[in-house]
Structures are given as C-alpha cells and as structure tokens.
Specification:
423 residues, alpha/beta, four-stranded antiparallel β-sheet
C-alpha cells in the first residue's frame, strides 16, 4: 500500500492501560509522538482483567430459559464497554495535557464487521472521516476489540482483538502501526523459560504468524494475518518507557514485523515456541476403510473443532488402524464427545484423551533453503532423552508433540542447538 509518512497508529494493551498512572504514561508517549509532528490515532485495550470481570457479569445474568437463544449481541454490548472506558480516559488525559484529542467509538469510525457476535471479523473501515480528523491535528483514541454491524449492533472481535483493530485502522490510514505492550519486542523464545533469549530486531510476517499460532503471546494471530495481507509495518515496543525532559522518546528499536524481503540476513531458525494448550485424542482400532479418516475430520470440522497434528499407525487388530490427532484443550471435550457419539458409525474400539502434552516448535524462513534443520532438532531432543509423539511441518516450521513435563527442557535445548543466544 502507499504509506503516509506522517500518520501513525499506536496501540496500548491491557497492562499499559491497567490503572490511571499507566494511562498517564501512555498519554505521555502519545504526546511525544504528536509533538514530533506525527498525525496520531490510538487504539486501546481495556484495563488488564476488566474483560474477564465483564464476562463474569454476563455469566452472572444467568442462562437463557428453554427455547430462548443466547443473547450474544447483548453480551457484546457488555464486554465492549471496557475499551470504551480506557478510550475516554486516555482522550481526557491528553486534553488535560493541552493536546487536541477525542475518542471515537467503533460505531463512530465506523469499524464495520460481520454479525458473528463474540468473534466478529472486520469487513471495512472507511478511512475518510478518521483520516480527516488525524490530518487536522486531532489525536483520535479508538477502543479496540469492538465494531458495529451494518445494522448498527455492537460486536466484539474475540480475545486479543484490539491488536486486529489497530492493524485494521493502520491499513485504513495507510500507515505503520506501533504496538506498545509489556515486553520490548519479540524474543527468540520466552525469556522466562530461557534466560539467554534475545530480542529480534526484525521478523517476517510469516514467521510471526507461525510463532503467534504456536504459542507466542506477543500478538494475536488475526492481527498478523491482516498486517501481512495489507502490508502494514508493525513494530512491537515496550510501554514502560518515559519521554525525556524535552518530551522526546528514547531511541528504542523494538521488533519490526515486515516483509521477508526487508530482512537482509535470513536466519535458519528465528525462534522456539511452546504451547501447553494441547490435547491428544486417539481412536484405537478404527476401521481401515479408506473413508474413515475423512468421516472423522468432517464431523470435527462441522462442529468447528480445529485439528493440528495427525498421525495414523497400524493397530494390533487386523484391518484396523490407530488414528491420533491434536486439538486445543478447550475443544478436546467437545471432540471426544463427538467421537463417542459416533463410535458405532466410525467403527473404533476405544478412545483415549491425553491433556498432559505440549507442543514445541522451531520457526524460521531460512528453513526453505537450508538442509539439516530437522536433524538438529531431533538430535537435540534425543540428547536430552525427550521422545516425541507426533510431528507437523510447514515450509518454515517444525512442531513436535511431547510429554508436558519435558516442555521447558525442550525449549532450552532447541534454543541452544540453533545458536539463538547469539542473535
């Protein structure tokens, strides 16, 4: 896209909006950018923990009576209010500092979505009114996570949706997006697990997308998908910085998420991720007919259950196989119930569910052009006595399913095996 050299979208997450003092610090960061000559729009999350509280309130309203559908549209009205509060507070704080600022709710921008309440997708953001406001010198503060249907009903975008809101607004304004959070960028792995983790100066959209989907919690997956599709440059920065006495921000680079072609030196592996949100389901003694796996995964797909790793092996019973697949823990019970309900039709002998597993992955665009990546991974795991139960691969990642007890050991072993402490 054609980018504006002076416009900028800034996004502050829940920890950056956690209380009035942090909102004041965010305001000082925004003010520093505005006073440097940037035309700024800001997207904010709710205060940390507030969305969970609001969701609990909706639960407290009780379950619908028999034959009454869930009121997902009213659920959205409640849970979208957290971001409305922080948007108003940040705009008010900026005004009190002498800056021109105003809040614009999702319906005012408008951020137009489909009508799938609770997990809506953005369809359009007409950027004319918003662009005119920021170009006119106003700092526009927008609540993330929320939008509006074409019929005028409030929607929410699902957990982490404020990241998607920010990237979508940046796309509408044809400008970069700075994501301020509680970390100073994207690391080679979780520094709480491996103290030798290093911050990456740049990472490609594809690598970030894989890392986000595989357990890295820096950005929401849909936001990275949108940034890649619309070629929005995204920087991840720490919100725990302060402008100097002259109102200038310190020179902090953070991590730039960009097109692969903008990365001169491509690493073989850029990061190691871990996810404990995994469950392994095995159908023992499944009929060996050719359409049996298709029948299994059709039922799961129709129920909205996402499946990741799949392994089929020969069963002890002649004419039968064992089929193993993984899914997120939240989907595991539903998947298991679906399989039990269809046991006769599918023709399997026994079902097993194991939630004591973890997925460990290595990600890097350099895998496309380098041999031996898998060998290094499996040798590092073998040297630590770690057995893997399933494997999945793409052009730029290799994931293994292992016993959860060995997850952190595996992360440290792989981080060292690929020399990521030297990044």
């Amino acid at each position: 896209m054609t980018r504006s050299s002076s416009r900028l979208v800034m996004k502050f997450g829940g920890t950056s909006m956690a209380d009035l003092e942090r909102i004041r610090r965010a305001a000082r960061i925004v003010a520093a950018e505005a006073r440097s000559g940037r035309q700024v729009a800001v997207v904010v999350s709710a205060m940390a923990g507030k969305t969970n509280e609001l969701v609990a309130w909706t639960d407290g309203a009780g379950a619908p009576a028999a034959a009454i559908p869930l009121s997902d549209d009213e659920y959205d009205v409640v849970v979208a209010s957290g971001e409305q509060v922080t948007a108003g507070l940040l705009a008010l704080t900026l005004r009190n500092m002498g800056l021109r600022a105003r809040s614009m709710m999702g319906w005012q921008v408008p951020i137009v979505t489909d009508d799938v309440h609770g997990k809506a997708r953005i369809e359009d953001i007409p950027g004319d009114a918003l662009g005119a406001a920021v170009d006119g010198g106003e700092i526009v503060v927008i609540p993330g996570f929320q939008g509006v249907t074409r019929e005028g009903r409030i929607t929410t975008l699902g957990r982490g949706g404020s990241d998607t809101s920010a990237v979508a607004v940046a796309a509408a304004l044809s400008c970069p997006c700075d994501i301020y959070t509680d970390v100073d960028g994207v690391d080679t792995t979780d520094p709480r697990i491996e103290g030798k983790a290093r911050r990456l100066a740049r990472i490609s959209y594809e690598e970030m997308l894989e890392m986000a989907s595989l357990g890295a919690k820096v950005l929401q997956t849909r936001s990275v998908e949108l940034a890649m599709a619309r070629q929005v440059p995204v920087r991840v920065l720490s919100s725990f910085v302060e402008p100097d006495e002259n109102g200038n921000l310190p020179a902090v680079a953070g991590t730039l998420i960009c097109d692969e072609e903008e990365i001169v030196e491509k690493r073989i592996v850029s990061g190691v991720t871990m996810s404990r949100d995994e469950a392994r389901i095995t159908l023992l003694g499944l009929s060996d007919r050719t359409d049996a796996p298709a029948d299994v995964f059709t039922r799961l797909a129709e129920a909205g259950v996402n499946v990741d790793m799949i392994v089929q092996s020969q069963a002890r019973t002649e004419g039968a196989v064992n089929l193993t697949f993984t899914t997120g823990r939240r989907d595991a019970r539903r998947a298991a119930d679906l399989m039990r309900e269809a046991q006769v039709e599918l023709g399997f002998e026994q079902l097993r569910v194991d939630e004591d597993v973890a997925k460990v992955s290595v990600v890097g665009v350099g895998m496309r052009s380098h041999a031996g990546v898998a060998q290094t991974m499996f040798r590092a795991l073998a040297d630590k006595g770690i057995k893997f139960q399933a494997i999945s691969t793409s052009e730029i990642k290799i994931s293994v399913l292992i016993d959860a007890a060995y997850a952190e050991l595996a992360v440290r072993a792989l981080h060292g095996a690929y020399g990521l402490e030297a990044v």
